[in-house]
UniProtKB/TrEMBL annotation:
Its EC number is 2.7.13.3. The keyword Kinase applies. GO terms for molecular function: phosphorelay sensor kinase activity. Residues 394-617 form the Histidine kinase domain. Residues 638-754 form the Response regulatory domain. Keywords: Kinase, Phosphoprotein, Transferase. This is histidine kinase. Coiled coil: none annotated. Residues 82-134, 329-381 form the PAC domain.
Length: 761
């Protein structure tokens, strides 16, 4: 039995040590205090220490002594047991927490003779509980302070906790929701993704994240994260209505942007300045031919495609905007198409800056304005043509009337002053000056495409061969001439006289570009201008053309000179050495003839001018050599001369009479009409076109042919438009002698018209 008791006591001792639990007793009769070994260990005193009642009380922390004294005294007095949590101070000065339990002990008479109990060190438990409470408090504070709404739901779907943000988002007070079922309080969530996702989280025991809309009264989009817990479900949620609306607005904006980007012909771009990447819409490929993946995806690639002469200016202009404070940028420059052609573009963009004002992005659009610029240039050219034409037309008639008299009299003086060389030379100089004046007017008319043309089907090879002597006299011996004639050359529908003048002008320009000598090459050929070429040129119709090229080995032209070469009065020659009308006359003649002209030139490499003249529609063996017969032939026919200018009328009448003709004169169309009514033997009506009064020369001729169906008609004018010339060409069957003219030209033209078979065209 003793061994068993001893063993039990030992087990209790071991358990007490493990639990930090000791026993004590106060003998009220003897006033002695007995502590067990465990109690002494807890108090960190000597193994044989036995305190008095006062000493035992003194071990308690000062703030707890009165409470222990009170409960101990009550237990002594009436036997009330106690169980208190108090602090005490060990013999080593450490403050710990203990559970102090006391019970009264009575004798056989029921008298309280002692108090005994237990004393347990619960410091670790208290610390753990305080830590737990602290953590719980911190967690609750955290949940209260987070920006997300948060609530806990138990297994019955009832609210167990809600933070302040949950109250705000749900528009409900937590005290109204705690313990309530979520599906009852928020019925719209019952048959929705909210319930389906919550049940999934609970049933599958994994986190579920989703976004859904809750209708009135919340009318909000929520982003939700539901986490299963041991007691139910923890839910975090936030209001993302603004983000969803922004995303929808952005989606709509992007959709509109994409629609615009697809609808426009502009190349839309978005430049990320931070990473130097450029996004382009499909028009970068469609309009400019550049692949969107492998090219033009950085500023370096973009700059590489800017024309080298524009590159520095464009870079400087865009850098000023990026480095400055403004937002808008705009420039116009030349941009390389992937096929190597140059396009004119108008580029504009806007800078987007961050909060520090630093440029981080640019967006804009690049518009191809090549066609617009070409159209503007054509309009300017048309206006220039109109202005020159109006100016020239305004003075040409009267000016050429004067030149007719001057040239005719200078010719007459030259023939009569055979023995007075000095006076004869002055007369010749006068005639030459008059011809140069007429040529100047004609060149201006040719440039403005108002020179009347008399196109025929011409063998250009033969025309050039007939010009050989004239060209050699013009170019002189220090320039070699080579001609390359194409076999089987098509006939060309062209005014041969005007073509001769154009070729002579080109030869003179070539001579002036080779002051130290060189080589002039004239080449002919058949060619076809296709639609692709016509699209890149101004006023070119696809079709078959006869090509005449004039090349020299002279000084060549700069690109700037080449661009201005066809402008009237533009010249690189010294003052008095050139009028600046040679190439402009060639240009106007080619265009008025329905053809095309192109210049190829490089500095120190010479120049080539190519004339493309329309192929004739029918085979006509007209043999034109451009030269008048050396002998002047007259006649004895009767001519009615109609001229409003008295000087010209008197001069021409005298020349015709000198040729043997019988001449009757009239000062205007009405007077001539009266004469025609009276005389039925007039062989030729020689009339000016532009005259004062209600009737012009063309109307007079129509009346004359009605009165005298067999009468021949020859028109003359210093300038005419529309009356006998339409679309720049003489009406079919019309004969015209342009003022001023020499007596030889007058005699030849009059004789030709009089001798013409009425059935000939």
């Amino acid at each position: 039995m003793r061994r068993k008791n001893h063993k039990t006591s030992e087990l209790l001792r071991i358990a007490g040590t493990a639990a930090k639990l000791g026993g004590w007793e106060v003998d009220l009769v003897k006033q002695e205090v007995h502590w067990s070994a465990e109690t002494r260990m807890i108090h960190e005193v000597q193994p044989d220490f036995q305190p008095s009642v006062e000493q035992a009380i003194e071990f308690y922390a000062p703030e707890h002594r009165d409470r222990i004294q009170t409960v101990f005294d009550r237990c002594v007095n009436d036997g009330t047991p106690y169980d208190e949590i108090v602090q005490f101070v060990t013999g080593k000065g450490r403050t710990l927490w203990a559970r102090s339990i006391g019970e009264a002990v009575r004798d056989d008479n029921g008298t309280i003779v002692a108090v005994h109990g237990a004393f347990q060190d619960i410091s670790e438990l208290i610390v753990a509980r305080e830590r737990s409470e602290s953590l719980s408090k911190q967690l609750q504070q955290t949940l209260e302070n987070i920006s997300d709404g948060f609530f806990l739901i138990d297994h019955d779907w009832c609210f167990g906790f809600l933070n302040t943000q949950a109250e705000i988002l749900l528009l409900r007070r937590r005290e109204d929701l705690l313990g309530k079922c979520i599906w009852d309080e928020f019925p719209a969530a019952d048959d929705s993704d909210f319930r389906r996702c919550y049940e999934e989280a609970v049933n599958e025991q994994h986190t579920v994240r989703f976004t859904d809309f809750y209708p009135a009264p919340l009318n909000a989009w929520f982003e939700v994260s539901a986490h299963p817990t041991q007691d139910g479900l923890a839910v975090y949620f936030r209001d993302v209505t603004e983000r969803i609306n922004n995303e929808e607005s952005l989606r709509i904006s992007n959709e509109r942007f994409n629609l615009i980007a697809r609808a426009t012909r502009d190349a839309i771009w978005d430049w990320d300045l931070v990473h130097d990447t450029i996004w382009w819409n499909d028009n970068m490929l469609a309009v400019y031919g550049h692949d969107l993946v492998s090219t033009v995806t950085s500023s370096e690639a973009w700059v590489r495609n800017i024309h080298e002469n524009d590159r520095e200016r464009v870079i400087d202009s865009i850098n000023k905007v990026i480095d400055g404070t403004t937002t808008g940028w705009q420039d116009q420059y030349r941009f390389m198409h992937s096929n190597g052609t140059i396009r004119n573009v108008s580029d504009r963009g806007f800078v987007i800056r961050n909060g520090d004002g630093k440029a981080i992005r640019m967006v804009g659009s690049m518009m191809d304005v090549t066609d617009r610029i070409e159209l503007d240039e054509r309009m300017r050219q048309a206006q220039k043509l109109e202005a020159v034409g109006q100016l020239t037309g305004g003075v040409a008639h009267d000016f050429n009337n004067l030149l007719t008299v001057i040239l005719g009299n200078a010719e007459l003086l030259t023939e009569q002053l055979t023995d007075q060389q000095q006076l004869r030379m002055l007369a010749e100089m006068t005639a030459t000056a008059a011809e140069r004046g007429a040529e100047l007017t004609n060149r201006l008319l040719a440039f403005s495409r108002r020179q009347p043309l008399d196109p025929r089907n011409v063998n250009i090879n033969k025309l050039i061969q007939n010009m050989d002597n004239l060209l050699r006299r013009t170019l002189q011996e220090h320039i070699d001439i080579e001609t390359v004639y194409a076999g089987g050359l098509w006939l060309s529908e062209v005014d041969p006289g005007q073509l001769e003048g154009a070729l002579l002008n080109l030869a003179i320009n070539a001579r002036d570009a080779m002051p130290s000598g060189g080589k002039l090459t004239i080449e002919t050929g058949n060619t076809q201008l296709d639609q692709a070429y016509a699209d890149t040129q101004d006023e070119v119709v696809p079709g078959q053309y006869v090509m005449v090229s004039v090349s020299d080995t002279g000084t060549g032209m700069t690109p700037e000179v080449r661009r201005k070469a066809f402008e009237p009065f533009f010249t690189t020659k010294q003052m008095g050495k050139g009028s600046g009308l040679g190439l402009s006359m060639v240009f106007g003649f080619a265009k008025q003839s329905g053809g095309h002209v192109k210049i190829y030139s490089e500095i120190d490499e010479g120049s080539t001018v190519k004339l493309y003249l329309p192929r004739a529609n029918s085979a006509d063996n007209t043999n034109y050599d451009g030269h008048l017969a050396p002998d002047i032939e007259g006649g004895n026919e009767i001519i009615l001369l109609v001229e409003d200018d008295p000087l010209v009328r008197e001069h021409v009448s005298a020349q015709l009479e000198a040729l043997g003709y019988q001449v009757h004169t009239a000062t205007n169309a009405d007077e001539a009409h009266d004469t025609l009514k009276l005389m039925n033997n007039i062989d030729l009506l020689f009339t000016d076109i532009v005259m004062p009064g209600s009737m012009n020369g063309r109307r007079l001729a129509d009346l004359a042919l009605k009165l005298r169906p067999g009468i021949k008609v020859l028109f003359t004018s210093g300038y005419t438009e529309n009356a006998i010339v339409h679309h720049g060409r003489l009406d079919r069957g019309v004969h015209l002698l342009n003022k001023p003219y020499r007596r030889q030209e007058l005699a030849a033209k009059v004789r030709k018209v009089l001798d013409e078979n009425p059935d000939e065209p």
